[in-house]
Write a structure and sequence with these properties.
mainly alpha, flat, 65 residues, single chain, 88% helix
């Protein structure tokens, strides 16, 4: 299996667009979310990150199947 860098680049660009939607549409809500994240224990953040990565991998598997 080879890496299609064009597809990877498009996926990353879409990620950046999606990451920017909330701060653009509602900066106040984004600030509250960032403050809440800063107050969250490190272990909980790691677990949320792991769950997110697993969900992303499963979704990619289902889509590519």
């Amino acid at each position: 299996m080879t890496i299609d860098w064009s597809t990877f680049g498009m996926a990353f660009a879409l990620y950046l667009v999606l990451e920017g939607v909330i701060p653009f549409l509602s900066p106040t809500m984004a600030q509250r979310a960032f403050k809440a994240m800063a107050a969250t224990p490190e272990r909980a953040l790691r677990i949320m990150g792991l769950v997110s990565m697993i969900a992303g991998c499963v979704l990619l598997y289902v889509i590519r199947r």
